Amino acid sequence: MPAAETSTIPGTAPAATGSAGFPPGFLWGAATAAYQIEGAAQEDGRTPSIWDTFSRTPGKVLGGDTGDVACDHYHRFRDDVRLMAELGLGAYRFSVSWPRVQPTGRGPAVQRGLDFYRALVDELLEHGITPMATLYHWDLPQDLETAFPSGSSAGGGWPERDTAERFAEYAGIVAGALGDRVELWSTLNEPWCSAFLGYGSGVHAPGRTDDVAALRAAHHLNLGHGLAAKALRAALPARAKIGIALNPSAVRPLTDSPEDRDAQRRIDALANRIFSGPLLKGAYPQDLIADTSHLTDWSFVRPEDLAVIKQPLDFLGINYYAPAVVSATDDPNAPRKDGHNSGSHSPWPGADKVAFHQAPGELTAMDWPVDPTGLTDLLLQYTAEAPGVPLFVTENGAAFEDRVGEDGRVHDPDRVRYLHSHLSAVHEAIRRGADVRGYFLWSLLDNFEWAYGYSKRFGAVYVDYETQARIPKSSARWYGQAAREGVLPPVE
């Protein structure tokens, strides 16, 4: 049985809630990622990640933006932690920058890099905020991507087994530095994006467009999780809890026709079961292997890999933004992309005859539909698929066109409504039996939004990038009240 069946998450209680309130000990948090907020890209021994290289490549990031300065969190983290405390947040999910800690992805750590995270965690604990450390949020050391292992002609990175092994070494280093302070650990954030946007469609770093490389990357990310989980358990105290943050898709067919149902099956395999299969069941779905057999024979999966990947999970993180609506098509010009990317190459290998459709209803600034029912569906789905494993909503949020008003404040009623509806969806899942232990708003701060640069604002706190001033939006105040009271305030 999973280790989580007899474990508890620090600062939480098993799910049980009334009609209005959330469970006692429910964690109310916010999330960020290192490259999106830290800045200090060339300080204290940090070397380039794949996102430094990608963002400096003309045409890859809107406006030519980079994360060189971002929100300057590296120098302003104490102020940011104080702001979290003032808002009433009880938890903070941050990621560790691999190239800040281990610049080449190999060898000894840079203590100055580790010292930053030690100081950040100390500051969080001093303010009564529970830290959750994510080991990988897409910033692979560039040296690992440009390495050419034996037998590889395209490059290194996640398509290569060596990267998974290096990741486990890095996990042990970070655990050794922070294990006495941090109890909640997530190995990977959204491995689907790393594999299929980074190596499939090429709209994320490192920008490669190779179907087989994307499938190999997915497997080696899974393997990296398993190896890292083992390394963490070897280095951490017994009280530590280890999980992973996935971004499963709530895939819905356009119609009930057999053809559209089959399109749903194909995308479900590539978006969801390629990760949940080995993580939870110790096997890749046979239909996925059949769908992609014309691309690869999957010989990169060694027999012993699956047992390594299927490590006990103390929790499972669910990142959710919008559902996907799909149909079958023979139209060669049909949209092959979902709302998370806009590249010319499809991120869906083996799904050439699947089209994506815009779901109805209100849209965010990303043109993503606002549909909280998908979050309830996913929480209940993973409750059934991983019985006994507690869940966290490790990311959920929305970008809107936020502006500073004449009164010097930022009013974002659309985000308040979004948060209310999605937290209500979490509450509904709990009412129906899902063991959800916490919710992490994406994001604490406006930040570098990957290929969109600084053009999209997801933060509960507005950032003036010229002055680095922070202005809590009305949604931050609303969410802080929810965190303090454990119930959702009314929406104006």
TrEMBL record:
<keyword id="KW-0136">Cellulose degradation</keyword>
<feature type="region of interest" description="Disordered">
    <location>
        <begin position="331"/>
        <end position="353"/>
    </location>
</feature>
<feature type="binding site">
    <location>
        <position position="137"/>
    </location>
    <ligand>
        <name>substrate</name>
    </ligand>
</feature>
<feature type="active site" description="Nucleophile">
    <location>
        <position position="395"/>
    </location>
</feature>
<dbReference type="InterPro" id="IPR033132">
    <property type="entry name" value="GH_1_N_CS"/>
</dbReference>
<dbReference type="GO" id="GO:0008422">
    <property type="term" value="F:beta-glucosidase activity"/>
</dbReference>
<dbReference type="GO" id="GO:0005829">
    <property type="term" value="C:cytosol"/>
</dbReference>
<keyword id="KW-0119">Carbohydrate metabolism</keyword>
<dbReference type="InterPro" id="IPR001360">
    <property type="entry name" value="Glyco_hydro_1"/>
</dbReference>
<dbReference type="Pfam" id="PF00232">
    <property type="entry name" value="Glyco_hydro_1"/>
</dbReference>
<protein>
    <recommendedName>
        <fullName>Beta-glucosidase</fullName>
        <ecNumber>3.2.1.21</ecNumber>
    </recommendedName>
</protein>
<feature type="binding site">
    <location>
        <position position="321"/>
    </location>
    <ligand>
        <name>substrate</name>
    </ligand>
</feature>
<keyword id="KW-0624">Polysaccharide degradation</keyword>
<dbReference type="InterPro" id="IPR017853">
    <property type="entry name" value="GH"/>
</dbReference>
<feature type="active site" description="Proton donor">
    <location>
        <position position="190"/>
    </location>
</feature>
<feature type="binding site">
    <location>
        <position position="442"/>
    </location>
    <ligand>
        <name>substrate</name>
    </ligand>
</feature>
<dbReference type="InterPro" id="IPR018120">
    <property type="entry name" value="Glyco_hydro_1_AS"/>
</dbReference>
<feature type="binding site">
    <location>
        <position position="36"/>
    </location>
    <ligand>
        <name>substrate</name>
    </ligand>
</feature>
<dbReference type="GO" id="GO:0030245">
    <property type="term" value="P:cellulose catabolic process"/>
</dbReference>
<keyword id="KW-0326">Glycosidase</keyword>
<comment type="similarity">
    <text>Belongs to the glycosyl hydrolase 1 family.</text>
</comment>
<dbReference type="InterPro" id="IPR017736">
    <property type="entry name" value="Glyco_hydro_1_beta-glucosidase"/>
</dbReference>
<feature type="binding site">
    <location>
        <position position="189"/>
    </location>
    <ligand>
        <name>substrate</name>
    </ligand>
</feature>
<keyword id="KW-0378">Hydrolase</keyword>
<feature type="binding site">
    <location>
        <begin position="449"/>
        <end position="450"/>
    </location>
    <ligand>
        <name>substrate</name>
    </ligand>
</feature>
